[in-house]
Design goal:
With 307 residues, the protein is α/β, with parallel strands linked by helices. The chain folds into 2 domains: 221 residues, Rossmann fold; 48 residues, no CATH class. The chain is 34% helix and 20% strand. A 7-stranded mixed beta sheet has the order 5-6-4-3-11-12-13, sandwiched between helices. α4 packs across α5. The protein is globular. The N and C termini lie far apart (59 Å). The N terminus is likely disordered.
Length: 307
């Protein structure tokens, strides 16, 4: 079975025999058709490009939690965002509330499960391509959080790409766009009034000037896009829905959870024909005890958790 390694004097396995041994090891190691699919066929089909799709041991339940992070806030973070200076501690409080709430609501007493959290959001600026502040906060929250909670195993991942296509990285997921210009004869210039001896934020000055009707004035450094702009996530909602559908038919998870109060994501829970697991909706600090589509979701077998 071995061929001598002339240089080192060590036994080595011929390539064709090594391949045969690997195949036999795979066949001997699987105990069921499900195991064969999970441990061998799925990695083969997806070309090893999967991201964190490792199946939990057979005696452990597996839950995928798809978190629309920008849609998850608590009172502390809302106040900090109102001040314009949310800190790592503010985001960590929300992060910990998400993890603790999901595990407490979904775990089965006396049983061990694996919870795989994927975080979705506008992680990259459209112009510079740089990671956003929110991205950096989430990465730090993941780094500091324990990997076990209440006897449950935790996995964390930032969703840069589709769940089963790790090489398809999405960039420019957070875009800054100018609003439609107001009616009337204006140009792209806006005026800012600088208080003598008192440095102020140029954006605030510019907005104040527009409100008072003093614009436009030629030569002002402020521009309309600085006054009226919006930052929107692109691709993110579609990515969540696509991952929910694909994960639901993969057979790799016992339960798929979408954590968001955004109704745009609900179609990801309603593809019932070929699903191989339980689908669930979780909402953090939901403002209403009953959602508009709760009855429809429940009638379709979707579980709902308010955490």
């Amino acid at each position: 079975m071995y061929e001598a390694d002339v240089k080192g004097g060590r036994p080595s396995i011929a390539p064709e025999k090594l391949m045969r041994a690997m195949v036999l090891q795979i066949l001997y190691s699987v105990r069921s058709e499900r195991q064969l699919v999970e441990n061998f066929l799925v990695p083969l089909c997806f070309g090893g490009a999967t991201t964190n799709t490792r199946k939990a041991p057979l005696n452990m339940g597996s839950t995928a939690v798809l978190v629309d992070f920008d849609n998850c806030r608590n009172d502390r973070l809302e106040r900090a965002m109102g001040r314009g200076n949310p800190s790592l501690a503010d985001y960590s409080a929300v992060f910990d509330e998400i993890i603790g709430g999901v595990v407490a609501a979904l775990r089965t007493p006396g049983a061990r499960s694996e919870f795989s959290f994927r975080f979705y959001g506008g992680w990259f600026e459209s112009i510079s391509g740089d990671p956003t502040d929110l991205h950096n906060m989430v990465v730090q929250c993941i780094a500091r959080h324990p990997r076990h909670l209440s006897g449950q195993r935790l996995n964390f991942e930032v969703a840069y790409a589709p769940l089963f296509r790790g090489e398809m990285r999405f960039e420019a997921t957070l875009r800054t766009e100018a609003w439609k210009q107001p009616e009337g004869k204006i140009n792209d210039l806006a005026t800012c009034v600088r208080a003598a001896g008192m440095p102020r934020c140029q954006a605030v000055q510019t907005l104040n000037c527009w409100i008072r009707g003093k614009c436009p004035e030629y030569g002002c450094p402020g521009r309309l896009r600085d006054v009226a702009s919006r930052r929107g996530q692109k691709v993110v909602d579609t990515l969540v829905v696509a991952d929910a559908v694909i994960a639901g038919v993969s057979g790799l998870y016992d339960k798929i959870v979408i954590l968001s109060a955004d109704e745009d994501l609900l179609p990801g829970l309603l593809f019932q024909n070929n699903r191989k697991c339980t689908m669930a909706l979780a909402r953090l600090n939901h403002s209403s005890s009953v959602g508009r589509y709760d009855m429809m979701l429940k009638s379709d077998g979707v579980e709902i958790y308010d955490i």
